[in-house]
Specification:
about 40% strand; OB fold (Dihydrolipoamide Acetyltransferase, E2P); 6-stranded antiparallel beta barrel
């Protein structure tokens, strides 16, 4: 979104009040396109364009039946492997006792130890698979990364989503409560400004207090000469 606005800049330089009106464009301070890293079918889309959402709010969900089944399978596997490891530990304790009584050989003791190590290793591998599948299950939901306004919706229930090298964009959000006014500044103007400086941003005739967020270091060539980009952070009020 680009709208022409006016920045009213005033600064003390060095002992003289300096003021100027500079044309700027208004745009989102942060804009993100959201997708899912896993494939599936869209089950629900909980937002519409223009909705305000809170950080962590669930915006979209895929059908997670298959992912839930994998997690349940992993959990059952871990339960079984824990039981086998406990049995292997009891067996080792029994063989250790027999070994100390010189009833069994060192080979028998080493085999019992190896069975326990294998059981414990299998549990670690199963837990790793559980974490991986739990992450995939979590990824079937898209949550808002910050307080935002929904600016674009490209998903509908029943739509298939294929995860790949080029993620399919489903929702686009913009950070709510603030916007960026971007101006092109001359070198003399740059010399009078600094990051963090407060100035006035006039939008549709209404003045807002803004603060300089960044001042570009590399000039841009335009028809009027070389200029530097400058970003001013200013509050916004969504409908």
């Amino acid at each position: 979104m680009k709208i022409w606005i006016v920045l009213v800049i005033a600064a003390l330089y060095p002992q003289t009040l300096w003021a100027a009106e500079i044309q700027a464009t208004l745009q989102w301070s942060q804009r993100v396109e959201l997708s899912t890293p896993v494939s599936g079918v869209v089950q629900a889309v909980n937002v519409e364009v223009g909705d305000l959402v809170k950080k962590g709010q669930v915006l979209l969900t895929l059908d997670s039946t298959a992912y839930q089944a994998k997690v349940a399978e992993n959990q059952s596997e871990i339960t079984r492997l824990n039981a086998e490891a406990e049995e292997a530990k009891r067996d080792l304790d029994r063989v250790q006792e027999l070994y100390e009584r010189t009833v069994v050989s060192t080979t028998d003791l080493d085999q019992a130890k190896l069975r326990l190590v294998k059981s414990q290793s299998a549990i670690s591998e199963a837990r790793a698979r559980l974490r991986q599948n739990q992450k995939a299950l979590d990824d079937t939901s898209i949550r808002a990364p910050f307080d935002a306004v929904v600016v674009l919706r490209q998903a509908e229930p029943g739509q298939s989503v294929a995860a790949g090298l080029q993620p399919q964009m489903l929702l686009t959000l913009a950070r709510s409560g603030e916007m960026i006014a971007r101006a092109l500044l001359s070198s003399p103007q740059m010399d009078k400004l600094k990051t963090g400086q407060t100035l006035t941003v006039s939008i549709a005739g209404i003045n807002h207090t803004g603060k300089i967020k960044t001042l570009g270091l590399e000039p841009i060539k335009t028809n009027e000469g070389w200029v530097y980009p400058g970003d001013v952070l200013c509050p916004s009020k969504e409908p």
